[in-house]
Amino acid sequence: MTLPATDRIPYGGDYNPEQWDEAVWDEDYRAFDLAHIDMLTVGVFTWSLTQPDEDTYDFTVLDGILDRAEREGRKVCLATGTAAVPPWLAHRHPDVCRTDFEGRRHLFGVRHNACASSPAYRRLATEMARRIAERYGDHPSVIAWHINNEYGGVCYCDLCAEEFRAWLQERYGSLDRLNEAWNTTFWSHRFTDWAQIVPPNMLSEHWRGPNHTAFQGITLDYSRFNTDNILRTFREEKDAIRESSDLPVTTNMMAIYRHLDYHRWAEHLDFASWDNYPTDGSPVSRMALSHALMRGLKGGQPFWLMEQTPTMTATRDYNPVKRPGIMRLWSWQAIAHGSDSVLFFQMRHSKGASEKYHGAILNHAGRTDTRAFAEIAELGAELERVGAVLLGARTPARVAVLFDWDSWWALEITDGHSRAVGYEKQVVAYHEALWQAGAVLDVVPVTADLTDYDVVVAPFLHMLKGDIATRLEDVARRGGTVVTTVMSGRVDEDDNAFLMDVPGPLGALTGVRVDETDSLPPETVNTVVLTRDGSDEVRSAARHVFDVVQPQGAEAVGVYTEDFYAGTPAVTRHGFGEGSAWYVATCLDQDGVDWVIRQALAEHGLVGPFAGVRDLEHTTRAIDGRRYEFLLNHAAETVTVAAPWEGTDILSGRDVSEGEQVEIAPAGVLVIATR
Ligand code: GLA
Ligand code: ZN
């Protein structure tokens, strides 16, 4: 089962006409016509309408919305609507409300609020999914199922404690094995009865917040359990849908979202989808990383961009509007990285409550003569013209970045070495370097098949699971390059340290041994001098953590300049088999990371043709022997580059010959179908 069947890149998004009366719907559809909108996501928050009390189901409103969509020739991604519980449900079954990290049982309020262990929630959400699918599974407009909405958060209630114990029994089989995994002899924690185990929160193992735990193993397992427990509700809804419909199922995810290990979800999704709301100040490349992470869930199959704001958000302290051209640029960026849709939240501004100022296709006045609407309509027309050619196209990547939620969790809940080292920030830095260098890349789990990659970048791979160390060795052995870093190869799957030299099972591959890791306050810099084969020196400000490295066959390509380890290796390269492995023993600044990454890519001729042009993004999709080269200018200035390919820009229709100088304005996009 794969993506929904469409004959163009679906364009549209969340549509909540249940919030206003039907006279307004005419205006909505006139605007959809103008904007070439063909796809509506419906029913995401309709539970209190479709089930006004436990014994009454009422689909009148949804019937009306869907029938109208059909008459208007629109396709629908239909939600099960289970992401916000109705008041009667919380009132009648208080156990649907979550208990938070401080141990407080919540009352009814907000959304994304259900305890995934609550029998009432599970029964009623599943029943809702069953009824929706039964009623609309054959509806001519419906082409996909959208279960729930942005799953997330954590619950620590007594029901979750029960479920956690059951999950642990399943995982470990015996208390002996659990005691070993959690190293419970430390601080007198040996459990002799499953009933003694309680969720790790501020009332139990934690001493300063979610990242400060006395027993990493317990907290780590609670994160894994929470992922699986919430996933179970998704699977229950999906099974209920399957009783009457074979249409593809997804849920809209949040990409680099810490609470849920989406890799554990991947096999249960028919296709991946996600909501792109970049935080202000994050690099543009972070969106590219997110897209690639989402594409990586289904082995490189295209995903859907389920939501983005057409203009502005409403949840931040400041909510800038997207500057002219940016909405189009970021939409094309999503497509460039494997999205087969461009969808928004939402079609019309709500009248009241927390999202009344959140961006929408139509403002409160319903105007279609605004700047924002004009851009939306132009993009709609453009996507319609492009048609189906890009649908299903894959990304021919030779570079992989490993992304691992277990490493993320384990690194950040660890006491020592440095609390200042965040997993996300470090992965973003390595990815940013690859992005600026124009590497066409995949972001994959540690279980992925690595045989097709020439360069594998594994930043802060704190935990080594399964045979990943061996498979990284295989990459280098057959001639590939592996890049890994400080804080990698530290713990096994149970979060227990390897009883060997650091970096544990990565020692042979990296050719280094680390006897000490120094960590210093963020303002303390140790400059690292990077140079190789007589090339110009690059000086990089290193911070946070500093491995003192004893080379075991590796050559130093970067050295510290300060402290008692001045002159010793800070970055090394080790020939291994036909290939090599790089070990970056500290947190280099971006210039340093860029240098290392370009060296690694250069070993395979994988530095992209526009690596010298800052913020000019290049990536590729390919289908049926045809390559589409995407060029997106995120810089504030026009750039002029020599086209390395001959082809036609499918957006402007203009032919491009090899070597021709091509001008790309700020926010400009080219999609060159090569010949
Ligand atoms: C999320 C949700 C939507 C909406 C938008 C607004 O992505 O899924 O329901 O709240 O945010 O930013
Ligand atoms: Zn709970």
Query: How many strands, which pairing sense, and closed or not: the largest β-sheet?
Result: 11 strands, mixed
Proportion in helices: 25-40%
What is the level-2 CATH architecture name of the largest domain? Alpha-Beta Barrel
- Domain module count: 3
Helix/sheet category = alpha/beta
Bound molecules: alpha-D-galactopyranose, zinc ion
CATH class of the largest domain: Alpha Beta
Report the mean per-residue pLDDT as an integer. Answer: 97
Q: What is the approximate shape?
A: globular
Comma- or semicolon-separated keywords:
675 residues; TIM Barrel; binds zinc ion; alpha/beta; binds alpha-D-galactopyranose; single chain; Immunoglobulin-like; 17 helices; Rossmann fold
Provide a quick synopsis of the model:
The protein is 29% helix and 21% strand.
What does it look like?
It is built from 17 helices and 29 strands. The chain has 675 residues and is of the alpha/beta class. The strands form 6 sheets. Strands 12, 13, 14, 15, 16, 17, 18, 19, 20, 21 and 22 form an 11-stranded mixed sheet that branches. Helix 8 runs antiparallel to helix 13, helix 10 crosses helix 14 and helix 14 packs across helix 17. The longest helix is centred in the middle third of the chain and has 27 residues, at 216-242. It is globular. It binds alpha-D-galactopyranose and zinc ion. Alpha-D-galactopyranose (GLA) binds at residues 149-150, 275, 277, 307, 313, 315, 345, 355, 358.
